[in-house]
Amino acid sequence: MEDGLSAAGCAAIMATFRTAHYPGSMHITPVFAARARRAAASSLLGLLVLLGGCAQAPVRRPAATPPPAPRVWPQVPPSNPAAANNILMRALGLVGTPYRFGGNTPETGFDCSGLVTYVYKDVLALSLPRTSRELAAVQGPRIPPEQLTTGDLVFFGSSGNVTHVGIYVGEGRFVHAPNTGGTVRLDFLDGAYWRDHYSGSKRVLP
Asked: Residues of the signal sequence (predicted)?
């Protein structure tokens, strides 16, 4: 049995209360009048309780939607494990270096493409283009997200324009130099901003 009354039940109680009457010819003695007042007060109290039940009908709320399960990133072995591991260790070793627009050394700081070009030059003596847009256009295979491996470049932007780049280091994470006032850091590709602005990946390891 549910708490409270239905809307129809409440309406019926109100109608009964409004239309109740007593015969006009009845002789009303003081005792009868007192009893009538007590009965009326009791009826009014009962009505208020019932109407309170009408106002407190239970509210049924929809069940909460469970959060999405975290994405499981496949472990794709690199074609050159030694080179990929060296890239990984050098990139992670630069986490915490201050961001600087136009910077491309640990001493001066890094912007996003400066970090990428420095790591590949320092580890593999490989010269890469200087801007994120030029890096996205460099010769090399484009890689779908499920085939990413350590050392791949990951690109971000909007409306088809690449504006940011980082180095993938495995398990859905990448190292990058994000913005003025920040530092080189490790982030997840599934992070809200990066997921929404991801624009592709490229493999440049020899």
From this structure: none
This prediction's pTM: 0.68
Tell me what pLDDT residue 139 has: 87
What contacts 32, CB < 8 A, 6 or more positions away?
none
DSSP per-residue string spanning 157-177: EETTEEEEEEEEEETTEEEE-
Cβ(100)–Cβ(118) below 8 Å: no
Choice between 204 and 23, residue whose per-residue pLDDT is larger: 204
Distance of alpha carbon 145 from alpha carbon 151, whole angstroms:
13
Q: Which CATH number is 81-202's, of 3.30.450.20, 3.30.300.20, 3.90.1720.10, 3.40.50.150?
A: 3.90.1720.10
For residue 12, pLDDT beyond 80 = no
- b/e per residue 158-190 (b: at least 16 CB within 10 A): eeeebbbbbbbbbebbbbbbbeeeeebbebebe
CB 189 within 8 A of CB 182: no
Instruction: Write out the catalytic residue numbers.
Output: 112, 164, 176
Residue with tokens 């460099």: 138
Are 13 and 51 a contacting pair, CB within 8 Å? yes
